[in-house]
Amino acid sequence: MRKPFVAGNWKMNTDSHTSVELVKAIASRTSEAARRSVHVAVCPPFVYLQNVVNALRKSGVAVGAQDIYYEKEGAFTGEISSSMLKDIGCTYVLCGHSERRHVIGESDELINKKTAAAILGGLLPIFCVGELIEERKASKTEEVVTRQVKKGLAGLSAEKVSAVTVAYEPVWAIGTGLTATPQQAQEVHALIRKLLGQMYDAKLAEEIRILYGGSVKPNNAAELMHQQDIDGLLVGGASLNADDFVAIIQAAM
Ligand code: PEP
């Protein structure tokens, strides 16, 4: 049985005050029942991680970073390692978010190194994949997502991949207000699960969580969660509003 998982990606938003206020509001407004039945995480900007970790102690809400570098330590100016994230109390890390792929220019190979380093360092990667609008229009969704999954997880054993949560985020649905229909999302989630079964084994495919992301809001969360292969939601914009994020958590129960 896969436990639902809702993660909030704050991107480059909030400040030292609003980041803490936001998580305090999320923690205090999430019902006991939701806490028991849904895993919840927030991914603030690096500079606010420590404050957010401190504010969320004993709340049951986990903290993730939005990126990582794959080397352990050394002369890598501006970068942050898995051991640093672990040291300050992070549990999760986003790897291969579409903005890192398409705005910053990260390759499948780099994302693979980051995902492997996250697992090695004891973090739980949220490994993101998803096609561009041109790729969907050209009926290339399956090809693109298959390539991203195969290259992104290359060289990782089934045991290592069991630490991974996959997030399917069609790029055309991120921050645009356009959501994939529950059927469109389910189709790709089923494809990813089947692919993982072929790459690893049926047990891993059955147990791994696959989140949907792309303009998730309180009014579409429940319908997305009703799909057989959608195990949770990766939420951008709506995770910056405590009421909306809590409503999405409740919808995921
Ligand atoms: C995201 O940042 O991963 C995301 C899905 O953003 P939004 O919910 O704003 O589309």
Question: Uncertain segments of ≥5 residues (pLDDT<50)?
Answer: none
Radius of gyration: 17 Å
Give the helices and strands as they follow along the chain.
Answer: EHHEHEHEHHEHHHEHHEHEH
- Seen as an oligomer or otherwise, the chain set is single chain
CATH topology: TIM Barrel
Classify the beta-strand content into a percent band: 15-25%
**What gross morphology would you assign?**
globular
With strands numbered from the N-terminus, the spatial order across the biggest sheet is 1-2-3-4-5-6-7-8
* Architecture (CATH level 2) name: Alpha-Beta Barrel
Number of strands: 8
CATH class annotation: Alpha Beta
Q: How far apart, in Å, are the first and last alpha carbons?
A: 13 Å
**Fourth-level CATH superfamily:** Aldolase class I
Roughly how much helix do the residues carry, as a percent range? Answer: 40-55%
| Structural category | alpha/beta
User: How many domains comprise the coordinates?
Assistant: 1
Characterize the biggest β-sheet: 8 strands, parallel, barrel
Bound small molecules, by name, code or SMILES, are: phosphoenolpyruvate
